[in-house]
Amino acid sequence: xxxxxxxxxxxxxxxxxxxxxxxxxxxxxxxxxxxxxxxxxxxxxxxxxxxxxxxxxxxxxxxxxxxxxxxxxxxxxxxx
Length: 80
Prior knowledge:
The protein is mostly beta strands and 80 residues long. It has strands at residues 18-24, 30-31, 69-77. The chain contains no helices and three strands.
């Protein structure tokens, strides 16, 4: 499940969906969904929640996976 944060105004118009950045608790590397992870063929605009279960931290390389990442209070928007 992808966690979205959407803000709507009283007139019914809504802002673009926003996606969280995640930080490795071991090395501090930040996964930015706007950039993806080219080292593992993860394209830009891939939300963290959609990364495969086999994905690993590109800095720790095999030492830690998704379970070692924590959500940050930093969000990015995807342009269509």
